[in-house]
């Protein structure tokens, strides 16, 4: 069964800066601790990454997955869905960017379904860890 999670964080930077960092997939390994390698497989007509392959360390093992990105609501948000992946049935998500008086509220929505059998509590913890880590690391990189 898929686990859904939603989190928000206030980032001391403009929405443009948040979007710039969050869509610069090639540099994820520089700041996202669990991401080991990223390859952009193709681009859309606007030059944005469309399909991206990730190699990451997760749940004590190395995993490979490919995400396809959707920019229909850009610049307010962008989303993605899993095309294929090791140990994953679903890895769908969305980043949203809302300007605040000071900074940007970044919203992160994530739906994860692992193909390896894990008790619900462990799946929830894994989803929570993915989310919390991703937002904190994004915030740190954007504010750097």
From TrEMBL:
Q: Which SUPFAM superfamilies match?
A: Bet v1-like (SSF55961)
Recorded hits in InterPro entries, A to Z, give: Polyketide_cyclase/dehydratase (IPR019587), START-like_dom_sf (IPR023393)
Which Pfam families does UniProt cross-reference here? Polyketide_cyc2 (PF10604)
Full protein name: Unannotated protein
| Species of provenance | freshwater metagenome
